[in-house]
Amino acid sequence: MPELSILGSLAPYHIITYGTLLGSSVFQSFIGGPVAFKALPRAQFSSLQSAIFPIYFSLETVLPVLLAWTYPAAKSLTGISSQSGFSGVFAEHNRLDVLAPIATTFAIHFANLTYIGPQTTNIMKLRKHQETRDGKKSYDSAPHSPEMQKLNRKFGIMHSVSASLNLVALAATVWYGVVLAERLQ
Hints:
The protein is mainly α. It has five helices and two strands, in the order H-H-E-E-H-H-H. Strand 1 (about 75) and strand 2 form a beta hairpin.
């Protein structure tokens, strides 16, 4: 049976936070998003993603901060041998293996939350208005009006940037998981 005194340390909260960050990222990127895209008509998929993404990117922005806040100190035979929390994350010897992946994940999801996501949603709204003017869906086969072509190109760029950055954040999260696993040995 686990010793309950561990609940007074940062370690279990750090592991739970890391698991939530990795799990939500993997789920949204490889399960929830792709399954919804295949299962739902395009309009409903867009509505679903428009509702999910602000929550998802908010969660993915807060979790790296919680990860840094709950960073546990390393222990040695003589007691605690490093700093915990933010000071441990920012310690010089942790800048590459701890700060870099956590900061990368935070920065990418913050950018998706505050700029890329809202811009993409705005382009989707503009495309919807253009569909009404053109009498044709943005994803219907060509030809499209010059305005719709421009909006489709902008949407494609923003969507690609968001998806690519999300994969970089996932890679940084996995990288940190490897660093964390080294501490558990």
